[in-house]
Amino acid sequence: MANSRQPNGSAHPLQHGGGYGATTPRFSRSVVLVGLMGAGKSAVGRLLADRLRLPFVDADREIEAAAGLSINEIFQKHGEPFFRDREEKVMARLLAAPPQVIAAGGGAFMSASTRERIRESAISVWLKADIDLLVRRTAKRTHRPLLAGDDPRAVLERLAKVREPVYAAADITVETSDEPADNVAQRVASTLFARPQGDAAHPSQGRS
What we know:
This protein is α/β, with parallel strands linked by helices.
């Protein structure tokens, strides 16, 4: 299931034509995937990028490369506020680059300045997954500092309560289940290409 916001009267985010396949036109805006950890942003993002003929970038990996540290190490050595500051700077850089598919960290969309940059220059897609699925996908993974030393379900439920109302401001919402990432990527691509004339990067008109 996919919902999208339909603004009126501005340029279509495609440079020309419609549909996707061998002659798919390139998007003129980046596509930013948002959602909780375990929603599949990286896996879906890589497949979506192939469909849109755009580069793919994982924002967390970019933060690690810039810091020369893993996400866990950044949290341990410098704390979460330092990480969020670096995350905001990396997202600003990625959003200023030519169009690409960006898998954002789970907390990136919580930054008001990042949301504004996305609104101005990209199309946001919330991959919405239920807690049971997120718990299964994040079980026994050690690279999630927010889950370290706590009950993963309790942490995810707490994050969902805080973050999901903000994620709901995304231009497009795609509900996901325990299904192949390729299926989700295809639904996202279909929703993007099905949008009528109007710039998806300005979510002011409500859902369809």
